[in-house]
Amino acid sequence: MRSFLLTVLLVPLVSCGKKDAAGGPMQGGTPEVSVVTIEPQRVALTTELSGRVAAFLTAEVRPQVGGIIRDRLFTEGADVKAGALLYQIDPASYQAAYEGAAAALAKAQANLEPLRLKAERYEELLASDAVSKQDSDDASAARKLAEAEIESAKAALESARINLDYTKVTAPISGRIGRSAVTIGALATASQAMPLSTIQQLDPVYVDVTQSSREMLRLRKALESGRLSTAGGEAQVKLLLDDGTEYPEPGILKFTEAFVDPSTGSVTLRTVFPNPHLLLLPGMFVRTVLEDGIKEQGILVPQRGVTRNPAGQAMVMLVGTDEKVEPRLIQADRTVGDNWLVNDGLQAGDRVIVEGLQRARPGTPVKAVPFGSLPATTPAATPAPAADKK
After folding, report:
1. What is the DSSP string of 243-261?
2. CATH 1.10.287 fits 91-165, yes or no
3. Residue 308 to residues 37, 305, 311, 330: CA-CA distances in angstroms?
4. d(CA 351, CA 364)
5. CA distance 322 to 318
6. Cβ(195)–Cβ(64) under 8 Å?
7. Helices (H), the chain
8. What is the CATH number of domain 63-90+167-194?
9. How far apart are CA 213 and CA 208, in angstroms?
């Protein structure tokens, strides 16, 4: 019986010197933690915003005069040049009006000549008192009236010429023309609501995106305070298509709206992208990656090394100069890839624990090794912290 009791008492003493099943450090030894050493670096900050493609130029083709469509002179979906003839409206009535205006001008010019000669003779006769002053004034007024009638006839002729030219409906801009809304024989009316067709210039194209006014103010304050700097020149923009692929051509930020949409609290930003292969079409949903600025001495910490305390504040665990764990509150308001960008709380040379946090209790001594040097373990092999027994 005594030998059995001695065996039972010796078993726990022998097991205390063995490693745990997970291959971790021996119980009672210094646990190892993986750390990254903080080194400030130049960080380019970007923001991803969603938006839609819009044509660089859009022109709705509408008739300036009414009449029957006699011919359509373009191919739907083709590229057209500015000034190209698209539709021909029956010009018969407008041609007649032009010829009538030309005849009225000729008549007014014919009436002017005798009145001009009469006024000149009366001026000569008035000098010798051969005619009365009244007769001379009447002759001069008749000449001026005839001259005014000529100017009026010229204006009427020009108006008739313009209307006759408007029977030829031409392209106002160069671009790709869409489908025709009318066919030959249809009746067109001046300034009708429905366009005959639409032309869009698709190279380059606009991409309009929205950004919250709160984010815009935060970025502006960072630039004004010097925490961020601009890269100089026009801001470069990258584009991600709806399927997640990156558009090969970079764009530029042209301008930001000067007002905030009261319904959404956002500001519209307009970017321009080259579109030589017409891959971007109006109405297409895309995502843009805008350059916010450059942080020259940026501090990045892996996301796995940042936790939250019960108050919701971001914090990290550091290995101090005495090789003991110490907590540190930080300010991190945005991510860069799989890292947090830290604005305050860390400095060059700090060692942040990113692996082994379950063994890194504040005030306990640890052995710091570079990140990535610890052997990989499965979650099942990682021992959970033991509860204190009374």
Report:
1. TSPBPSS-EEEEEE-SS-B
2. yes
3. 21, 10, 8, 10
4. 15
5. 11
6. no
7. 2-15, 92-127, 133-166, 213-225
8. 2.40.50.100
9. 15
Angular region, 155: left φ>0, alpha ψ -120 to 50, beta rest: alpha
- Give the CATH fold of the 29-41+298-374 domain: 2.40.420
3-state secondary structure (DSSP) of residue 207: strand
What pTM was computed for the model?
0.65
CA nearest neighbour of 219 among 313, 117, 291? 291
One-letter identity of residue 238: K
Instruction: State the chain's maximal CA–CA distance in angstroms.
Output: 169
pLDDT of 175 higher than 90: yes
Looking at the DSSP bridge assignments, the partners of residue 315 are 307, 329
Name the residue with tokens 């005839």. 146
Q: What is the pLDDT of residues 220-236, one digit of tens each?
A: 666 566 555 555 556 67
Q: Look at 319 and 9; give whichever has higher pLDDT.
A: 319
Quickly tell me which residue has 């400095």 as its tokens: 347
- How far apart are alpha carbons 249 and 377 in whole angstroms? 44
- Other residues' Cβ atoms within 10 Å of the Cβ of residue 107: 13
DSSP-derived 3-state class of residue 203: strand
For the chain, domain boundaries: 29-41+298-374, 45-56+201-296, 63-90+167-194, 91-165
Judge whether 152 and 42 are in contact, CB under 8 Å: no
Count of CB atoms within 10 A of residue 275's CB? 20
DSSP labels, 100-144: HHHHHHHHHHHHHHHHHHHHHHHHHHHHTTSS-HHHHHHHHHHHH
Q: Say whether 88 sits in a helix, a strand or coil.
A: strand
Under 8 Å between Cβ of 75 and 199: no
Q: Which CATH number fits domain 45-56+201-296: 3.90.1170.50, 3.40.50.300, 2.40.30.170, 1.10.10.10?
A: 2.40.30.170
Is the per-residue pLDDT at 379 higher than 60?
Answer: no
